[in-house]
Amino acid sequence: MSVLLKRDGLIVSCQARADNPLHGPSFMGAMALAARDGGAVGIRANGAQDVQACKAAGLPVIGISKVFTDGVPVYITPSREAAEELAKAGADIVALDCTPRERRGDAPETLVRYIRNDLGLEVFADISTFDEGLAAEQMGATYISTTLSGYTSYTEPKPEGPDLALIEALASRLSTPIVAEGRFNTPQLARSALVAGAHAVVVGTMITNPREITRAFAQSLAARP
Ligand SMILES: CC(=O)N[C@H](C=O)[C@@H](O)[C@H](O)[C@H](O)COP(=O)(O)O
Known about the structure:
This protein has an eight-stranded parallel barrel, surrounded by seven helices. The protein contains nine helices and eight strands. The protein is globular, with a radius of gyration of 17 Å. The protein is α/β, with parallel strands linked by helices. Helices cover about 40% and strands about 15% of the residues. It has one domain: Aldolase class I (TIM Barrel, Alpha-Beta Barrel). N-acetylmannosamine-6-phosphate binds near residues 15, 64, 151, 184 and 205. This is Putative N-acetylmannosamine-6-phosphate 2-epimerase. Converts N-acetylmannosamine-6-phosphate (ManNAc-6-P) to N-acetylglucosamine-6-phosphate (GlcNAc-6-P). Pfam families: NanE (PF04131). Belongs to the NanE family. It catalyses: an N-acyl-D-glucosamine 6-phosphate = an N-acyl-D-mannosamine 6-phosphate.
């Protein structure tokens, strides 16, 4: 089956929250251009404005819509309305939380069907465990991504490194392309995701968040005995 995200490709997540000095579509659009020039094959972006800005790079864009609600754990594209806005902004692929956790919005199977059949877009399922990946395949997701490993109550505490064991388990037993995402903080780790069977790798913080990259350097210097 042919899919938009190229095999062995790097996808760069261009996201900056409201408290980040780089927040906003002009900065995220520029990040997408830089990622394209560096060799990325896709972009992940949050919210309609950033999705629209990132489209200028001419790469497939995975759109997400983070909707935070007090006391509700699910925040990545929780409803049909959120998915529809991303489609209108030009997203080629819509990512959503595919965990069975409590949500305000639509059930993941409803959303997967809606994105594929009504919006006519590819579906990127963010999951945290093997069973969630299996369920996402049965729902008809186009890609299954390890985005939420370490970020659900039952996979916490978040380990230092990425979840290569989950990628290997999913890739060896499912037929849906598996995307590696979450804490791929070096080129070597990204490559090890492909060796574990990933179709492609998403990198965010270590490419597009200078504040966190600076923090890592500053903390390392401050730790000198
Ligand atoms: C858990 C969650 O909400 N992850 C988010 C999903 O869109 C982003 O904040 C991450 O930056 C992205 O997954 C890439 O991961 P990393 O920044 O570790 O390369």
